[in-house]
């Protein structure tokens, strides 16, 4: 089969013929029909951790081609079903599978079934970013989730995730939630998951966001329904947030960029007992700050895969992330997504890129840059090469 394969020495990825995988016990074989790009895909092609020969890429959607042994009948999965999920790609030092290939294998419970109202292309961009937002809001910040999951087990495994004050505080007072970079794919799910949390818990959530003005109409409308927005291009955006909340400050902050000074500035909007989650770690050097009122919580979405993952750049190798509780959370989340997508949960708009796997390196990886938002600048002029804004880049396999 064809796969997009890392060339670590040349810091690129090329289309190659590789062996088609077979599903092991508890796994399914998926014929991939669409893939979607994430910033980590080009990040770890330009700064390779994996060795040459690894298949790159995270997000995919396609059809079940075969079931491995011991896939339980309770999975309700059959050959021909449309499913979506994500894999590690070449984003780790240790050997892990990637998704940008004609076929892949994955544990049966780490995919979601695509509802009829959602196309395979639309579904391909959901898994990684939606789970990132769910982990950030529901188990790092501690907002109530609209589905049941094992909090007790999570707290036993991660005692640092103590329950937040929403567990005991006055329900009649609104909770202020601030999402920095509301138009990122992660932020678009973050706002929806915050709104669904309010519905599930009975709390009133006031949603504050920072995004470019061009995205305000979209973000004020359902399903995001922001109460207040500021422009991240204004240098005083954090003061504007404090003014808009009439000095009440933020109970929860989710920084969906976490680069340069964004963490420090976003943290300055927090109430004294507030909590903050970020998407890039302090150790990786993406952001700097002086002393912060609270240490923001970071985690990598890969922990949802429940495997050992070694990653990080330079000397900042992150520790092993194997977490059965995080995997169990991902399984419950994807069960919920297979019901909610297309009705309660809206997929992020997609940009279908020209060509298939063979164009990913030349176009898609270039558009997402090699690490920071600034790295995304390029000189190409084609319409499909305009900057990514509130959307997912998708390649369709014909
Ligand atoms: N920890 C994890 O496991 C994890 C998982 C997923 C993603 N991430 C990280 O999360 C970040 C967001 O990922 P994504 O896929 O959601 O990104 P994305 O959708 O590709 O981000 C594009 C958006 O970023 C906005 N933007 C660009 N520069 C900005 C700035 N300086 N301040 C505020 N907004 C800015 C743009 O807004 P405008 O178009 O309106 O200008 C655009 O809508 C990435 O760094 C990614 O690596 C981490």
Structure in words:
The two termini are 14 Å apart. The longest helix is centred in the middle third of the chain and has 17 residues, at 185-201. Helix 3 (127-140) crosses helix 5. The chain has 398 residues and is an alpha/beta fold. Helix content is 24%, strand content 21%. The protein contains ten helices and 15 strands. It has two domains: 2-126 and 347-396, Medium-chain alcohol dehydrogenases, catalytic domain (Quinone Oxidoreductase, Chain A, domain 1), CATH 3.90.180; 130-327, NAD(P)-binding Rossmann-like Domain (Rossmann fold). Strands 3, 4, 5, 6, 7, 14 and 15 form a seven-stranded mixed β-sheet that branches. The structure holds NADP nicotinamide-adenine-dinucleotide phosphate. NADP nicotinamide-adenine-dinucleotide phosphate is lined by residues 38-40, 128-129, 132, 181, 183-186, 211-212, 215, 232, 256-257, 279-280, 300-301, 373, 388-390. Keywords: Oxidoreductase.
CATH superfamily of the largest domain: NAD(P)-binding Rossmann-like Domain
The helix fraction, in percent, is: 10-25%
Q: What class do helices, strands and sheet pairing give?
A: alpha/beta
Q: Total number of helical segments?
A: 10
CATH topology of the largest domain: Rossmann fold
Which segments are poorly predicted (pLDDT under 50) over 5 or more consecutive residues? Answer: none
Total separate domains:
2
- Helix and strand element order: EEEHEEEEHHHEHEHEHEHEEHEHE
List keywords for this structure.
GroES-like_sf, Enoyl reductase (ER) domain-containing protein, six-stranded parallel beta sheet, Rossmann fold, NAD(P)-bd_dom_sf, ER, oxidoreductase, Quinone Oxidoreductase, Chain A, domain 1, alpha/beta, 398 residues, binds NADP nicotinamide-adenine-dinucleotide phosphate
């Amino acid at each position: 089969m064809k796969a997009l394969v890392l060339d670590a020495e040349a810091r690129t990825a090329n289309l190659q013929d590789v062996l088609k995988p077979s599903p092991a016990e508890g796994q399914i074989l998926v014929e991939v029909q669409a893939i979607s790009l994430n910033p980590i895909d080009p990040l770890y092609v330009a700064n390779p951790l994996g060795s040459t020969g690894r298949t790159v890429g995270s997000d995919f959607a396609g059809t079940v081609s075969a079931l491995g042994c011991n896939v339980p009948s309770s999975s309700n999965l059959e050959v021909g079903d449309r499913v979506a999920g994500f894999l590690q790609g070449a984003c780790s030092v240790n050997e892990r599978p990637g998704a940008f290939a004609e076929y892949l294998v994955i544990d049966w419970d780490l995919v979601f079934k695509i509802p009829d109202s959602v196309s395979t292309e639309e579904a391909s961009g959901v898994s990684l970013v939606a789970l990132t937002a769910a982990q950030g809001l529901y188990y790092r910040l501690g907002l109530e989730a609209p589905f049941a999951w094992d909090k007790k087990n999570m707290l036993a495994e991660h005692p640092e995730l103590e329950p937040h004050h929403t567990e005991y505080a006055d329900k009649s007072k609104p909770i202020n939630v601030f999402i920095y970079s509301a138009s990122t794919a992660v932020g678009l799910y973050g706002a929806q998951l915050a709104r669904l949390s309010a519905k599930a818990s009975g709390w009133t959530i006031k949603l504050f966001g920072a995004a470019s003005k061009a995205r305000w109409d979209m973000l004020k409308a359902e399903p995001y329904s922001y109460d207040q927005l500021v422009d991240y291009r204004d240098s005083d955006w954090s003061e504007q947030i404090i003014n808009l909340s009439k000095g009440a400050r933020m109970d929860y902050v989710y920084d969906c960029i976490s680069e340069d000074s964004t963490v420090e500035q976003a943290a300055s909007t927090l109430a004294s007992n507030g909590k903050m989650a970020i998407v890039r770690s302090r150790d990786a050097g993406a952001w700097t700050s002086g002393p912060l009122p609270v240490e923001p919580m970071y985690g990598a979405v890969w922990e949802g895969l429940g495997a050992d993952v070694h990653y990080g750049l330079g000397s900042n190798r992150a520790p092993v992330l194997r977490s059965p509780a995080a995997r169990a959370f991902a399984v419950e989340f994807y069960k919920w997504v297979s019901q909610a997508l297309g009705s309660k949960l809206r997929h992020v708009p997609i940009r279908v890129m020209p060509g298939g796997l063979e164009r990913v390196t030349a176009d898609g990886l270039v558009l997402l840059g090699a690490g920071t938002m600034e790295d995304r600048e390029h000189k190409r002029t084609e319409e499909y090469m305009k900057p990514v804004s509130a959307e997912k880049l998708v390649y369709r396999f014909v």
